[in-house]
Design brief:
Blueprint: E1 2-6, E2 9-17, E3 29-39, E4 45-56, E5 61-67, E6 75-76, E7 81-90, E8 94-105, E9 111-122
Antiparallel strand pairs: 1-2, 2-3, 3-7, 4-5, 4-6, 4-8, 8-9
């Protein structure tokens, strides 16, 4: 698991290879990731948008951005956590992702960016 804290928000990421949804012979590797967001600020926040940078080990780069995460824009009170699971497909056996969440301070209505740490996705047999 990797974690980072920025703007008073802790973001932790765990990754999992999904062999049942992958087809290595066709160059399709599916990974799931579990993200935990913890609001350590004294004010409530709301996650408005996400922006991902996705890298395959063959040099392919993609950006994905949009509203919320997994179809919701969760709000977090001080000291509250939110957790979700999503996925990413790669064309190679390993890659990495990182990004930002755009958050809103629910008291002041000001927006700010929170870092999502770099995390690696790797097929288990490649780790030997």
């Amino acid at each position: 698991m990797v974690s980072t804290v920025s703007e008073g928000v802790k973001v932790s990421v765990e990754t999992f290879y999904q062999p049942d949804y992958s087809n290595p012979l066709a160059g399709e590797f599916m990974f799931a990731y579990r993200i935990t967001i913890e609001n350590n600020n004294p004010f409530p926040i709301k996650l408005l948008r996400r922006h991902w940078h996705i890298f395959d080990s063959n040099g392919t780069y993609r950006e994905v951005e949009g509203e919320g995460v997994v179809g919701v824009q969760p709000g977090l009170q001080p000291e509250e956590r939110y957790q979700y699971v999503s996925g990413c497909n790669l064309r190679t056996e390993m890659g990495k992702m990182h990004g930002t969440y755009q958050m809103e301070n629910q008291h002041s209505k000001e927006t700010f960016d929170v870092a999502i740490p770099v995390f690696e996705m790797m097929v288990p047999f490649k780790m030997n």
